[in-house]
Amino acid sequence: MVIATGFFDGVHIGHRAVISTLCRIARERGEQSMVVTFWPHPRTVLQQDAAELRLLTSLEEKKRMLYGLGVDRIEVIGFTHGFSRLTAEEFIRDYLIGKFGATALVLGYDHRLGGGPPMSREELECLARRLGLETFRLAEEDFDGMAVSSTAIRKSLSAGDVERANTMLGYRYSLHGVVVSGNRIGRELGFPTANMELYEPLKLIPGDGVYAVCADVLGKKYAGMTNIGCRPTVSAVSSDVLQAPVFKRTIETNIFGFSSDIYGLDITLEFLSRIRGEIRFGSMEELRKQLAADRTVVKKLIEC
Hints:
25% strand, 304 residues, 11 helices, 5-stranded parallel β-sheet, single chain, 6-stranded antiparallel beta barrel
């Protein structure tokens, strides 16, 4: 069994290089390829800024992507405080070799295994060889002078730079959820929206603004525009004049050329580009005019 280990959040282009090497080496050796990953994220267990952590992929999304890249087997280890205390030697000996039958290990450029002080790449490779594993290590993958990482992608998405994030991911970033009822003000403005509630509560939502998207509903893709944010214009108009506006972050999508009732059904949004930031307008009519302008821009940008 040829194995690669890691959390693989986002399954980005750096991860894909590891997986491609993993599958190639396994084929050359006449063995199976396996990814050993973890859930939940170690930071949530070890309480390392856990409240701020948001994920690029749910566990099911990650598994689907890895299988799609040709991996034969995926093993998910429940990450616990006890597991975090294993040394690299214990993890390799007891899990990779003892439990999963590893004969070779594929390592990314910044790979680390086990708890305790980080080991240098030379120390880790020496340890693996001593325990009977052949090792293969990839060189660093760069993106505009910056190493591609899940952290870098999270930062780009949080800033609304979905195009840069998509380049590092190697595919369009997406959100998956269910359509829930809204206040229907969009319909009154001539721009009915599908309001999304995410299935994975820890999934990272791109920064506030208006985006060009492809919406997958009822098995078909449609161009559309998505607003992410607190809807300051709508929220202010909808609030009681005696109370301060209540701003709740929402994900609302106007799907072009689509009018079916899809409340309670699945929806997936693929993000292509950020059109503008979120703006508070002086009136609903100003908002309506801006939405019309946004739609014109988006229609020129994409076809799904």
